[in-house]
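Hello forum,

I keep getting stuck at the same step: I have a sequence, I want structure tokens, and every attempt I make locally crashes halfway through. Rather than fight my setup again tonight, could one of you with a working pipeline run this one for me? It's a single chain of 129 residues.
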Amino acid sequence: EVQLVESGGGLVQPGGSLRLSCTASGLTFDDYALGWFRQAPGKAREGVSCGSTGGGETFYRDSVKGRFTMSSDNAKNTADLQMNSLEFEDTAIYYCAPCMTLVIGAITLATPAPDFRSWGQGTQVTVSS
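Reply #2:
Ran it on my machine without issues. Output:
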């Protein structure tokens, strides 16, 4: 059984920091690294970051580059997301999942691995003054 557990969310003021953690078990997606996704109220889920299985660079969506840093251990199926300089627009429920990057023209996106359906509960991040 696939189980993903996210933690570390909370309420933080703009400019503050949080560190999210993810532990995965039962994964059969050996060809995929872990990544982070988020879903804000009324919006679709979007990819935030996606690790690399081959030693390549971690992908970050443009809006978080320079502010968020993901660290992961593919062997242990864990992934952390250090979030600095948080902005109101970062408010969302954050999830981790096996991921891949998808290139569509000039745009690169992080998407869940194909056939992945077992989302965890996520962890709420609220940026508010």
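The longest strand covers residues 92-104. If your local run keeps crashing, start a new thread with the error log.
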